[in-house]
Amino acid sequence: MKHSAENCEIKGFDGGDTVDLILLLTEECDVLIPEALGGVINNFSSSPRDNVDAIKAKYIIEAANHPTDPERNVHVHGAEKGVLVLADIMANSGGVMVSYFEWVQNIQVFMWDEEKVNRELKMYMTRASDIVLII
Predict the structure, then answer these.
(1) How would you classify the pairing of strands 59-61 and 84-86?
(2) Nearest-angstrom CA–CA distance, 98 and 121
(3) Tens digit of pLDDT for each residue in 8-60?
(4) 41 — phi, psi (to 5°)?
(5) Is 96 a residue whose pLDDT tops 90?
(6) How far apart are CA 10 and CA 110, in angstroms?
(7) Are 32 and 61 in contact (CB under 8 A)?
(8) SS3 of residue 78 by DSSP
(9) For domain 18-88, is the CATH number 3.40.50.720?
């Protein structure tokens, strides 16, 4: 914490090793959750950034918007390797749904309690998940 506060970053901390960010996604793991940046899992056939074949995760949960390269159909490629990919539209939709609930409450000048928000969110997310699992 001291190193981070003094340097505004963790790079250079003596108590750890530097990891190449591109290689980080290819470390051995069960679940890979790319967050924040889009396009970090890709299949650029002639690029040194091509990492989709090197990913060792059994599951990928897309917590970022478009963390996979939509032009290269990484989802299909992952399925061919037996990797289950939870698309960003499902992994991120809970937050979007709650934003919609806030909008509905604002236009009605009404406030839901946390229990109602959670109940409504569970209902919509369960319904959407059931539909995706059927497909």
Answers:
(1) parallel
(2) 7
(3) 888 888 888 877 776 788 889 999 998 877 778 876 555 556 777 788 888 88
(4) -105, 120
(5) no
(6) 45
(7) yes
(8) helix
(9) yes
